[in-house]
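Reopening this one. Same input as before:
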Amino acid sequence: MSFQLIGANDAFPPTWQADDDGLLCLSARLYPAQIQKAYQRGIFPWYNEGEPVQWWSPDPRFVLFTDEIKISKSMQQIMRKGDYIFRMNTSFDEVIRQCSLIKRTRQSGTWIHEEMIEAYRSLQRIGFVESAEIYRGEELLGGLYGVRLKNVFCGESMFRREPNMSKLALIHLVQNLHSEGISLVDCQIYSPHLESLGARKISRSAFEQYLL
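Same output, byte for byte:
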């Protein structure tokens, strides 16, 4: 199957044109303005360094409703202990760098390479991208980053330096989003880790309704 190659100012194809894996189209470069347009339509970039930019819109979509998060008894104990601090947007550069260092199953490298880091860093400066962080004192123990839309937070990647710290950052983020009236966290594709927190699959068309 051949895929349309789009330019920086071209419109994305309709998402129903994505293949069975969710791959929709390609581009030669990654531009911040193009990333913004993509997320607003439920499309995200995911590709290896040296490859064309691959734009994805999977069906079904793996999501976490902010009022459905499951907090295990062990996580409740960690939260009651309270020997940590939750912060937003205080160490974005370190969070994305740490996420880029994570070894992924069946991957020899990382999809969070320099072109991706620079694009998301520029979007973080204008408030389109955010990080959530867990500290003990001034030590960053774990966190995540993602894209904030009007009704959806699109999670991108997580890291931890101690067990459960990325999960703790996600729990606090979800609770904050729920209090702000945001009902959905886009987890993009299935993972058992996120399923244990309550994430589930919905159709692409149902997901896109939250983007309106």
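So the earlier flakiness isn't reproducible anymore. For the record, The longest strand covers residues 139-148.
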